[in-house]
Sequence to fold (128 residues):
Amino acid sequence: TRSGEVFDAPIDVVLTDEDVVQPDLLFISTGRAGIVTRENIRGAPDLVVEITSPSTARIDREQKRALYERAGVREYWIVVPERKAITFLRHDGARFIEVEAAPDRFESQAIPGFVLDLPRLRAVFEPW
Fold:
């Protein structure tokens, strides 16, 4: 069975009437598919991934982190390609907690059964 659907930019995510964002990647679980409309996503995704650049890093680390935390996004991954680094944040019901990954893998709680192969991902960053 499918656990959900992945979307990539550009797609509007309406967190509140004032807060609309366009994450690089996001995941909506099957059980929450009702927040997906033809026009946008209306509510907090289960997982949001932002891939930073020097011009967006601060916004991703501070502003978007605060928005996603308030909205209740279950997991937020901040990818920093030039450092070959990912910050994994998991919502504990009140706020984001940074989660340490094993050296070779990160197991998502937002996507049941999904394990991110970190050495393989770092290899993708090699040309950068």
About this structure: The first strand starts at residue 4 and ends at 8. The chain has a mean pLDDT of 92. The CA atoms of residues 103 and 118 lie 7 Å apart.
